[in-house]
Design a protein that fits this description.
By secondary structure, the chain is α/β, with parallel strands linked by helices. It has 14 helices and ten strands. It has helices at residues 12-21, 34-39, 41-44, 65-77, 92-104, 118-124, 162-179, 181-187, 198-215, 230-242, 249-266, 272-285, 296-303, 333-351; strands at residues 6-8, 28-33, 52-56, 85-90, 110-115, 129-134, 137-144, 150-152, 314-319, 325-331. A four-stranded parallel β-sheet has the order 3-2-4-5. Strands 1-8 form a two-stranded parallel ribbon. Strands 6-7 form a two-stranded antiparallel ribbon. It is globular and about 60 Å long.
Length: 352
């Protein structure tokens, strides 16, 4: 894996400016969405060298080939050449899609990730996985390409509503569960948002992800552990999106982590106490979301197109005790249906 700088904290943006000033890029493109153009771009606009600003519509619904085409058309009209660099200023959608647009434009130009959401700061911006959604399947088209740097400025988090902070926190929970049992014990004492030291938690998550990615940059083995909660979570998220009721990524992953922990428990990979602790903590942080039974088959069908699948098998990353993950675990539609039933029962129990 090629090493690239990851800057976290108040010095991140000055470090970005130094990198740009000390490089010989012919042009600089800043890509943002409607939200980050309004809330985040003004915070750094005057500090950046001369650049071209491209804005696209915000939201997962626009993470598609049509938006990429729009980006490429604007770059072409601006005569962007192969010596240019793109700065992706936004959340996971902008980081994934902007990186892909840069990676394919004229066979690839350099790009930098400037994540502005907690979700993208702790997960999406690190690791070089890029992509867009296609025909309702998340990140179905994409590539691996590393950025020239990741610059994480926690100040951007002040522009976010609490729901977005909570969404990003799901990836922090995931990192604790798959890789740090001791830190998980501490995290269980922090159920309220005001208890979260976000800068510290970002550093912890980035360190875990960077270590895993360095060991397996192309996701052929242990990197799949980072998909814990995502096989079912992505299917739920995509189904809600297609139904016109978008769910935040982290909220869907939270559901996925509960369901996939339940499957791990049925396979005797985690204990009763571990399942109860995971379920209780996630329930304390994330409100219950009703999953209509009429969407069940759609969710089950979507799991068959998960990127980890091979040979017709649905392959999942499951916990093997808290702090460790077992990858490439085959699961069945029946197990997924039972896991969703377990999640629904939790909502019924809370309602009584």
């Amino acid at each position: 894996m090629t090493e690239y700088p990851i800057h976290i904290g108040v010095g991140a943006i000055p470090a970005l400016i130094r990198l740009l000033e000390n490089s010989n890029y012919s042009q600089i493109i800043v890509l943002s969405d409607d939200n980050t153009a309004r809330a985040c771009y003004p915070l750094i606009q005057s500090e950046l060298p001369p650049h071209i600003h491209i804005t696209v519509p915000a939201g997962e619904a626009h993470k598609n080939l049509e938006t990429c085409t729009n980006i490429w058309e604007q770059m072409t009209q601006a005569n962007i050449d192969r010596k240019a660099i793109m700065l992706n200023l936004g959340g996971g959608v902008i980081g994934d899609m902007g990186g892909m647009a840069a990676g394919l434009y004229k066979r690839g130009i350099d790009f930098i990730q400037i994540p502005t959401t907690l979700l993208s700061q702790v997960d999406a911006s690190v690791g070089g996985k890029l992509g867009i959604d296609f025909h309702g399947f998340k990140n179905h088209i994409g590539l691996f390409r590393e950025p020239k740097g990741v610059f994480i400025e926690p100040e951007f988090l002040k522009t976010l509503p609490e729901s977005e902070i909570r969404s990003g926190f799901a990836e922090i929970v995931k990192h604790h569960l798959i890789a740090d049992k001791a830190a998980w014990a501490e995290l269980q004492l922090q159920q309220r948002m005001q208890d979260w030291n976000l800068t510290q938690l970002i550093q912890h998550s980035v360190a875990i992800k960077a270590r895993i990615v360095e060991a397996d940059p192309l996701e052929r083995g242990i990197r799949k552990a980072l998909n814990f909660g995502h096989t079912i979570g992505h299917a739920v998220e995509s189904t809600f999106l297609e139904a016109g009721e978008p769910m935040l990524h982290g909220d869907a992953v939270a559901i996925g982590m509960i369901c996939e922990s339940w499957i791990a428990h049925t396979l005797r990979l985690i204990s009763d106490q571990e399942l109860e602790a995971i379920t209780a903590y996630i329930q304390a942080v994330y409100p219950f979301r009703q999953i209509p039974m009429e969407w069940q088959e759609e969710i089950l069908d979507r799991t068959r197109n998960d990127k980890k699948n091979e040979g017709g098998l649905i392959l999942c990353s499951l916990l093997e005790g808290i702090g460790k993950a077992a990858v490439n675990q085959p699961i069945t539609r029946e197990q997924i249906a039972d896991a969703l039933a377990y999640y629904r029962q939790l909502g019924q129990a809370n309602a009584t």
